[in-house]
Amino acid sequence: MLTIDEINKNAKECHLCSLRDGAKQVVPGDGNPKARLMLIGEGPGKEEDEQGRPFVGAAGQLLDNILKASKITREEVYIANVVKCRPPRNRNPQQEEINTCKPWLDLQIAAVSPDLIVCLGLTASRAVLGVNDSLHNLRGKWHNFGEIKVLCTYHPAALLRSPRLKIPTWEDFQMVMKEYGTA
Predict the structure, then answer these.
(1) What is the pTM of this model?
(2) Beta bridge partners of 119
């Protein structure tokens, strides 16, 4: 089995879809390669594309605050995205792009082998669970990805646009804290 560093190195060479043409760089993932908790988002934004790390913009700062409130450090977790290259104008990734990039995510999940995954947003939730359900129906309960427990919640960018989503997101992270052992 490839290590997370080997997977990420290979992913940086990927040109399998058109997203790579418009991106400054591939943003494979970042964090603890043996994390018990893995966070999965949709795809890199402008700041992530420039810095080469996931969740470094405003949504990333909010995610850091959520983790801190959950008594979890960013250094403890592994953070990845469904697609590894920034979609033009920060649009949602298209299904073909998700399908092309999903094998990289599957390899990352296998290499990290976390106990828990938190899917941040609808795109990540659908990609990881392989379902076509609404986030409303997916969030607030545990799902399974093989032996890994998966919780779906709102993407931090959605919280910035709609602060009313902070309460249900915090409820979701309280479930994470209980499973992770920081409650």
Answers:
(1) 0.96
(2) 40, 152
- With 0-12 CB in 10 A as exposed, 13-18 as middle and 19+ as buried, what is 29? buried
Over residues 5-28, the pLDDT tens digits come to 999 999 999 999 889 998 999 999
> What is the C-alpha separation between 4 and 60, in angstroms, rounded?
21
Q: Please calculate the CA angle 112-83-67 and round it to the nearest 5 degrees.
A: 55
Domain layout of the chain by residue ranges: 4-180
Of the options 1.10.3370.10, 2.60.40.10, 3.40.470.10, 3.30.390.50, the CATH number for the domain spanning 4-180: 3.40.470.10
Amino acid at 25: Q
